[in-house]
Amino acid sequence: MARLADYFVLVAFGPHPRGSGEGQGQILQRFPEKDWEDNPFPQGIELFCQPSGWQLCPERNPPTFFVAVLTDINSERHYCACLTFWEPAEPTQQAVCTEDAAEREEDVDEGGPVRLSPAAPGPPGQLFAPKTLVLVSRLDHAEVFRNSLGLIYTIHVEGLNVGLENVIGNLLTCIIPLAGGSQRTISLGAGDRQVIQTPLTDSLPISRCSVALLFRQLGITNVLSLFCAALTEHKVLFLSRSYQRLSDACRGLLALLFPLRYSFTYVPILPAQLLEVLSTPTPFIIGVNAAFQAETQELLDVIIADLDGGTVTVPECVHIPPLPEPLQSQTHSVLSMVLDPDLELADLAFPPPTTSTSSLKMQDKELRAVFLRLFAQLLQGYRWCLHMVRIHPEPVIRFHKAAFLGQRGLVEDDFLMKVLEGMAFAGFVSERGIPYRPTDLFDELVAHEVARMRADENHPQRVLRHIKELAEQLYKNENPYPAVAMHKVQRPGEASHLRRAPRPFPRLDEGMVQWIVDQATAKMQGAPPAVKAERRTTVPSGPPMTAILERSSGLHGNSARRLEVVRNCISYVFEGKMLEAKKLLPAVLRALKGRAARCCLAQELHLHVQQNRAVLDHQQFDFVVRMMNCCLQDCTSLDEHGVAAALLPLVTAFCRKLSPGVTQFAYSCVQEHVVWSTPQFWEAMFYGDVQTHIRALYLEPAEDRDPSQVWGDSLALGDGGRPGPGSSLVLRQVREVPAQEDERSALDVASEQRRLWPTLSREKQQELVQKEESTVFSQAIHYANRMSYLLLPLDSSKSRLLRERAGLGDLESASNSLVTNSMAGSVAESYDTESGFEDAETCDVAGAVVRFINRFVDKVCTESGVTSDHLKGLHVMVPDIVQMHIETLEAVHRESKRLPPIQKPKLLRPRLLPGEECVLDGLRVYLLPDGREEGAGGSGGGPALLPAEGAVFLTTYRVIFTGMPADPLVGEQVVVRSFPVAALTKEKRISVQTPVDQLLQDGLQLRSCTFQLLKMAFDEEVGSDSAELFRKQLHKLRYPPDIRGTFAFTLGSAHTPGRPPRATKDKGPSFRTLSRNLVKNAKKTIGRQYITRKKYNPPSWEHRGQPPPEDQEDEISVSEELEPSTLTPSSALKPSDRMTMNSLVERACCRDYQRLGLGTLSSSLSRAKSEPFRISPVNRMYAICRSYPGLLIVPQSVQDNALQRVSRCYRQNRFPVVCWRSGRSKAVLLRSGGLHSKGVVGLFKAQNAPSPGQSQADSSSLEQEKYLQAVVSSMPRFTDASGRNTLSGFSSAHMGSHGKWGSVRASGRSGGLGADVGSRLASRDMLSPPQANGAPPDPGFLRPHRAALYIIGDKAQLKGVRPDPLQQWELVPIEVFEARQVKASFKKLLKACVPGCLAAEPSPASFLRSLEDSEWLIQIHRLLQVSVLVVELLDSGSSVLVSLEDGWDITTQVVSLVQLLSDPFYRTLEGFRLLVEKEWLSFGHRFSHRGAHTLAGQSSGFTPVFLQFLDCVHQVHLQFPMEFEFSPFYLKFLGYHHASCRFQTFLLDSDYERIELGLLYEEKGERRGQQACRSVWEYVDRLSKRTPMFHNYMYAPEDAEVLRPYSNVSNLKVWDFYTEETLAEGPPYDWELAQGPPEPPEEERPDGGAPQSRRRVVWPCYDSRPRAQPDAISRLLEELQRLETELGRPPERWKDTWDRVKAAQRLEGRPDGRGIPSSLLVSSVPHHRRSLGVYLQEGPVGSTLSLSLDSDQSSGSTASGSRQAARRSTSTLYSQFQTAESENRSYEGTLYKKGAFMKPWKARWFVLDKTKHQLRYYDHRIDTECKGVIDLAEVEAVAPGTPTMGAPKTVDEKAFFDVKTTRRVYNFCAQDVLSAQQWVDQIQSCLSDA
User: Fold this and answer.
1) Is a pLDDT exceeding 70 seen at residue 18?
2) DSSP assignment of 370-407
3) 1134, 1185, 1131, 1175: which is closest to 1151 by C-alpha?
4) Which among 1231, 1176, 1232 has a CA at the least distance from the CA of 1201?
5) 756: CB partners within 8 A, 6+ apart
6) 767 CB burial (10 A radius; 0-12, 13-18, 19+)
7) CA 65 – CA 269 distance, rounded (Å)
8) What is the rounded CA–CA span in Å between residue 1290 and residue 361?
9) Are 1491 and 1539 in contact (CB under 8 A)?
């Protein structure tokens, strides 16, 4: 029973003490005047009566009513019902306001404020003051309060004849029951009657309609987010203009939180004066009048709900975790069903006529039922996670949060985690955890309805039915007797507040009211207490939580089979069948990823523990420890699945004897897990064990046990500080408890004990309390021991490591409030003085462990009510326990070191190349799987080759891992993974678990640019110093200080890296001295101009790690013109210069220029004017441009000395030079560096030259113009310089992005060249639509009036070029990517193709996504796009100058691709080599800089410009597989070796640097002596003779075909060079290493049994597929060689065989051209390169099929045309391959032939071959290997010749004749006139036959 109202208060307006305008509330009267003893008068009522402040009002407002809530210091809520009405202000009150108004407004008339409302009665200046009647109560009966205060007001206003004192006295003495559903009728003595209904149960909140109103105001989503915010302890603020609404909203929100109670600040109506409360740091639910909204704006972390506007504003910094799915969506849909039943029917064709909507009160209960049900689902099974720590004198209960989350599978869930950690849940546990108490609706729901809720999940109607049932119960709780509510309360008349009140509210007679109250109190004391006994019962626990299936993927789903494997393995271990166990172990370790298998392991191991002890032998011990470690490694610090808890008793049970008296327990081997250093884990374990023991205490027959014995047992510690018998009770209880009654849970036992407690005698109660306390105490000692076992490391030298791992150091810094000062003092004393630790290091780790244990002991003992004496005793014991254990461990550590090491597999030594030396011998490591699935089994199936156990070797050339799979079931395969040291791009230290022992070890992750990744964990036998040495040596080899330290230089020479090789004796002037002189001269001439002007200055060798040279003294100034002797080629060259020239002429460039007919040096020297271009030796000393080759092609008309000036306009002095000429259109392709901006050029010259700067800048750009003019003039079609032939209508100044060329920008993915560039080039829009796939439009699209020269340049750089006044050249500005973008893109590509670890969800999409992010294919798309554009321009007869960046990266890529696409010669093996030598090596691509070969380049990193070019070639190869003589493997080979530093070819940055090191010309004399190939080309040649691996069998070129590949990203493929690997032998690009050992033939099996099958399994990522399954032709060639060897014949070379077969095939198909040739090689094979736009056409003669692209309708479609094409392409095919045996020699004899430039005439043996249509020559008649071939298809004329210098003297002039080909003119001389005539006739007849 309780009082209905505690206090009645009358509050009126009073002046503010500080004289400010606002008034303040004054309590006029309060009843009773004395405070009640049980309930003091609440402070601050005056503020809450008028929350917006006390103010006078110019009119009489209607009375208002609301209920405010005050919370006192004991968290008791007081409900203050306030009824406010207005009375005319008294003069004193009015004066206050008047003063205030006068202050505020100067011009106020008559001293009164302005009247606001004309309707208000009273004199003009009349003001009204508020007065409030307040009822204070601890009960929430708002309607009764409203009626009662209304009655008092009515009596006053209507002047009823009733004494107010009586009414108030009756009100204060009214006593009503709290709960129980009874009705109580009360009357206040004014003829009124009210019925008060009490709720059925007190614990369920009363909400009336507040929840329904809240949903109406805010909507479902908003209320749900408020609900989550309140539960997760965020600050919630309600705003509304109505106080009643605020109260209702707050009440509604609280009702939704049931069964949790909100325990933070709760103020439904906050007065204006207390607004600063809103900035409190603690969570709250507060309501504020919307008038104060502005003051809430600056609150940063408050969620604001505007009830009037229906919005909820969540600040950015606040994250409200949502409900876990599927509860969130289920709750949302159920709420919408309740609030809007019509929603389900809205789409029906024939909706039912009406739907019954619930009343507001009923809807309110339905909404609450939804949330009640939600809580039941959230907290289902919570009682199974309660720990009964104490039963008497009061229950102490703890909740095992981790186990609860683990069973629910919601460990990661943010919402539930926060709820369980919150204050509300802590209150829930302490209030509802009690096992014996009254129960309510929630207890029933969570215990009995869980199964029903799960069954109803997918049936909305059943869910709705359940909700209606719950709502009925909730409604019934609030309204048990709804029919009898007979209220009768007087109310004031309408508009009574406007009537003139007869008088102010009277002062009441305190004495009379007090007398009534006293009377009633006396009467109450006399009456017996009407206490209704609470009905307490045992709270039902409900069904135990069914373990929700693990949320892991199906990969680790634990089938019964897996558990069977675990059981079998353990039984094998304990039966001693070690081999069987070893076979199963890998499968077990994989299975242990799953939870069920881990629990199964713990249970199985328990079966093998007798008497708390299991002594094992060493092997068994190792197995058990490995399995335990594997179990524990996946445990989080929470140990939510209880695996660590189950293993804890086992780690102190399993042991092995190391020596007499020394036993090692398993705990010393499983310490490296985070769970052991987590205090929460130990607390949960401790409470669990305490519960078990306390339960056992009450289950035992009480009479025959002595209380001391109960815990005396547990104290008994076995030898070596082992725990007592209590340890394994956790799991033993499941099996060993016999009687049925013992199946009661601890909660049941506790409930029974609580029921009996009042009946026990005082002594018995004391005894039970003492027993429980002793049990807790003994467990605390036991746990102090256990913790010391798992926290103290076996080796005390590892103490530092342990502290870092365990986080003990962090825990020390946190202060613990539970330790009192005196206690802390005693602790400190105890372990500083008594234990006497000497060793500082040990003391350190011991101290940390002692502090950790003490903190734990303090916490658990304080919470479990252990007496302070016992606690002090514990603090004294802990240091002793720790010290004792340290001493035990020392012996164990000492003995364990003496154990014989486990036999590890033998290390396999790798095969090394000749000259490769081992730097570091094998370090034992584990090779771990990386992000590629193939080697590790993965989803693709296949064996788990990784992880593999073996060793890593470091040699002068490679990093090599060799080993065997760690999984013994895979077999004995050798796993090899290696890469060149020079290719290393990233080295990262990692910490990983070794696959076998599951120990955390240091590891290394090495990534290489050849797409290998070594992820290694060092074995424990490898010390950290060895690992560090490995890293240092690797670094040293990767970045040698000097290029001479790379493997290509050190290979085969005995000198150490860095020391120059021994000088050989000079036989005459060697090439070395020559190159040195040459460099010296170059240096002199280069002088300062070279050094200061350039952005990049490639450091000379002397600069790279040696003191600077002495011969640079002439750096001071350089004259405008250098000495003529060095620049103008004089016909009288010095002898040394002549040798230089000879060697230059032999370079690739020169050979190619002669082939292209761009002139020879002799003609250049004699200045034959007929040739438009000449070879200029101006750069032979590398004086003009250090990164260019020595000989350059320039226009005939340009003087050498002008080139010096032209070069200054270009970056790096790389001025435009010709590098290729089209045989058909005679257009030329030029390359140069980008332009210097004009300003920079001018500025530079002003500094360096004596004459004034500006004119020179002009003159240099004039030179540049002249030079371009000369280029244009040199072209045959554009010799006239008028402006007729240009692109009419456009000025070449349009260079912006909106100009003609705007489309070739970095558009990347979209357009492609097609539409934009094509149509703009053709200056018409879209008349020639581009073809699909980004192929260029019809080549006929270019108009006849084109510019003579197009300059393709970077947008930014082209600003320096003046538009050509005659419009003969035109600028094409494009945006290109820079080298750093290539580098960044390549890094991402590496990570995509060779990821370091598995993706979270591995799928093809994730690879494609990361590939796209790398933008590598987009860059390739752009390169191909620009190259095809240039090819089109050249093909149409315009010349093109490519002038991008510095001219050595992207320029080289584009120029090389253009030549490859335009000229079939470059698609042969020889041609491609020439292309790379010319464009990449001679023209100075910076291989060493881009490949970061030395220490100097380390910071710049690896930038694979050349690799990107090879990728582009690979893309073209894929689209045109029949046009290339070389195979895709050749490209991979070059891609691998350009980064490997095995060959010297791709080292250094220019020819100049190669000469300086003596690389270029040493090949002649010195190379012969050494075995090792220094040049990659020589190596390729050697290999090509032995094996066809570089040859493309499908090679059948079309002679003059210009390739136009598709460039859209969709047409590009990822190069398999990036993704494939061969684990059997490592990368296959070092041919000597890739040849595996031969397999024994069938009959020679060593076991002598029957011959086994030759079948073998080929694993994709293990075997080399081309070798295991060679293609048909390679197979046949191999077979042929084998048969020849068997017959005893020397095997023929594969090339000869192949050529013969092909020739035969050709002849078969030739006779009449009618039959289709049956060869796989002819060009009419329908291959996929023509797959787009293919059409078949019947020729007029026969049915030869001709395939061509739509745009290519050439005459080749007729049979005769195709025959001619076939013959031509046959002849080119045979240009390289000759056979001596099968030669068809039509005519032969000796002729003298004039050599190339500067070479003498020589006699050669010539053979005219009509079959192959070629003229071959040999050194001697008997030679089988020809020196050269002249293809007769290229011969244009045979004419009489004239003798030249050096010709044979005795021969007649008429014996000379010349053969002119498209490439060059050959000069011949026969022995006499007659034989000359015969030769000419034979050649002519051969030509006419064709």
Assistant:
1) no
2) HHHHHHHHHTTTGGGGEEEEE-SSS-EEEE-HHHHHHH
3) 1175
4) 1176
5) none
6) middle
7) 13
8) 82
9) yes
d(CA 414, CA 548): 18
Task: State which H helix or E strand residue 196 sits in.
Answer: strand 194-197
Could you tell me how many helices (H) and strands (E) the chain has, helices first? 59, 44
Each residue's pLDDT tens digit, 410-458: 888 889 999 999 999 999 999 998 988 888 889 889 888 888 888 888 8
Q: What percent of the chain has pLDDT over 70?
A: 73
Confidence band of 995 (pLDDT split at 50, 70, 90): low
Written as one letter, the residue type at 1318 is G
List the beta bridge partners of residue 665: 655
Nearest to 1793 by CA among 1760, 1822, 1827, 1768: 1827
Measured between alpha carbons, how far apart are the two ends of the chain, in Å? 126
Distance CA(595)–CA(547), nearest Å, equals: 10
Q: Is the pLDDT of residue 834 over 60?
A: no
pLDDT at 534 over 70: no
DSSP, residue by residue, 439-481: --HHHHHHHHSHHHHHHHTT-HHHHHHHHHHHHHHHHHHH-SS
Tokens of 230: 């309140």
491: its two tokens? 């109310």
Which range is least confidently modeled, 596-605, 1226-1235, 1288-1297?
1288-1297
- Cross-strand pairs, 392: none
In this prediction, residue 1424 carries a pLDDT of 95
Which residue intervals of 634-671 are DSSP H helices? 643-651
Q: Give pLDDT, residue 1561.
A: 63
Return the pLDDT at 962. Answer: 93
CA dihedral (420, 426, 427, 430) in degrees, to 10, reads: 120
Q: Which two tokens mark 966? A: 């760690």
β-sheet bridge partners, residue 722: 718
pLDDT tens column, 505-532: 888 888 888 888 888 888 877 665 555 5
**CB-side exposure of 657: number of CA atoms within 13 Å?**
4
Report the pLDDT averaged over residues 295-307. 90
Q: Say which residues have a Cβ less than 8 Å from residue 1474's Cβ, sequence separation at least 6.
A: 1148, 1151, 1152, 1465, 1466
Distance CA(1048)–CA(659), nearest Å, equals: 57
Task: Quickly list H helices, 1689-1741.
Answer: 1694-1708
Reference 1385, options 1410, 1357, 1362; nearest CA is 1410
Element (H, E) at 1037: helix 1024-1038
Residue 690 has pLDDT above 80, yes or no: yes
Tell which residue, 281, 273, 285, 322, has the closest CA to residue 300.
Answer: 281
Can you tell me the distance from the alpha carbon of 1083 to that of 1857, in angstroms, rounded to the nearest whole number? Answer: 45
From 1637-1646, 1696-1705, 1788-1797, the region with the lowest mean pLDDT: 1637-1646
Q: Which residue has the tokens 């791009």?
A: 985
Q: What is the Cα–Cα distance from 1187 to 1099, expressed in whole angstroms?
A: 12
Nearest alpha carbon to residue 686 among 572, 496, 857: 857
Instruction: Report which secondary-structure segment, H or E, holds 1787.
Output: strand 1787-1794
CB 1070 within 8 A of CB 1565: yes
Residues recorded for the chain = 1890
Contacts with 1635 (C-beta within 8 Å, 6 or more apart), sequence order = none
CA distance 314 to 304: 7
Rounded alpha-carbon distances, angstroms, from residue 202 to 68, 206, 1811: 21, 9, 114
With vertex at residue 283, the alpha carbon angle to CA 282 and CA 288, rounded to the nearest 5 degrees, is 110
Amino acid at 43: Q
Q: What is the pLDDT of residues 1623-1638, one digit of tens each?
A: 888 888 888 887 654 4
The tokens for 1602 are 């210009």
DSSP 752-818: HHHHHGGGS-HHHHHHHHHHHHHHHHHHHHHHHHHHHHHHS-SSGGGHHHHHHHHTHHHHHHS--TT
